[in-house]
Amino acid sequence: xxxxxxxxxxxxxxxxxxxxxxxxxxxxxxxxxxxxxxxxxxxxxxxxxxxxxxxxxxxxxxxxxxxxxxxxxxxxxxxxxxxxxxxxxxxxxxxxxxxxxxxxxxxxxxxxxxxxxxxxxxxxxxxxxxxxxxxxxxxxxxxxxxxxxxxxxxxxxxxxxxxxxxxxxxxxxxxxxxxxxxxxxxxxxxxxxxxxxxxxxxxxxxxxxxxxxxxxxxxxxxxxxxxxxxxxxxxxxxxxxxxxxxxxxxxxxxxxxxxxxxxxxxxxxxxxxxxxxxxxxxxxxxxxxxxxxxxxxxxxxxxxxxxxxxxxxxxxxxxxxxxxxxxxxxxxxxxxxxxxxxxxxxxxxxxxxxxxxxxxxxxxxxxxxxxxxxxxxxxxxxxxxxxxxxxxxxxxxx
Length: 398
Ligand code: PMP
Ligand code: GLU
Hints:
Blueprint: H1 6-9, H2 15-28, E1 34-35, H3 47-58, H4 71-85, E2 94-97, H5 100-111, E3 117-122, H6 126-134, E4 138-143, H7 154-160, E5 165-171, H8 183-194, E6 200-204, E7 229-234, E8 247-250, H9 253-266, H10 272-283, H11 287-307, E9 323-324, E10 335-336, E11 339-340, H12 344-355, E12 357-358, E13 360-361, E14 371-374, H13 379-394
Parallel strand pairs: 1-12, 3-4, 3-5, 5-6, 6-7
Antiparallel strand pairs: 2-8, 7-8, 9-14, 10-11, 13-14
Bound molecules: 4'-deoxy-4'-aminopyridoxal-5'-phosphate (PMP) and glutamic acid.
Glutamic acid binds next to helix 2 and helix 6.
């Protein structure tokens, strides 16, 4: 029997997770694969956070949690938003869930009706467009190529807005490009949005702390968009806590209530122990965040300088996150054993099979002709991966 709903049939699997899975399968066969596909810090969760989780177990924090998350955690997040971002969201406006991905999807499902348009500047993280498809909405892609720093301009935003526009999804620092919007750039976008009061901004700020150009700026700070920015963030990236699955949305109250209703019928409150760990992350010492950021910055410098040594590769300088997103068009149309490498998907597969390096094709991020490499790994892997990539690319025939 196979009776999959139209809704799920329309959905693509996550390319980032699929590539990572493929790399794990090859590793299980004894092949020495270097995995630069999935974006996940390679650090262990800091000790004081792990201790808080152990204490939570001993204190019997083992019961169902409130649907929107423990009040103490929502207070800690509200404080964090004021302290670090200068924006005010009351604890009732904050909903905690199973990762930022969960809350992004909850917001889209809570707001988007069939026929509604969602503006997605591309390259964009793999899951946004799939969430919009799940809700029956229409993705309006706005291509933002490397020449414009992979960022949407105010003119492009203005041109993309129609009476059907419900939402703009804005990710800064960006996955997959590492682009970071400056305060001035965000202000210019907010000014455009000022004339369109029906558009909500879904601001994905999960890479907030992995920033190499100074402090993080949130679009929520501008009065032109007051009351219509939903900030999504979580502990996965900043505190090396991907497996704990805690993220949140801070939203206008009506939206926070809708998200809570959805969560109450669908997933219930997030894990009790993980929430206590997240609370320790937000309320505890922050030097671990800076230590990891510094390591990522050093690795960024290393991978960019090594990739720039490969003839034909056009390499951007990421200002944040832990991805580099070079253009690889110089290698497309070349051959290996008579088989043509037609696109970046073929190239990513070639690199996996021949160089044993896992990357993700730009096609997954609606940006053909690029590859995404995650440098959330140690120097040895970075050096090894780039030298294998260089050797494999040099073997391609014209
Ligand atoms: N947004 C972006 C841009 C991401 O890269 C990720 C990482 N998977 C997420 C959201 C989701 O993070 P998580 O669900 O682990 O909090
Ligand atoms: N954000 C990470 C990535 O893009 C994790 C994988 C995912 O959730 O898609 O690789």
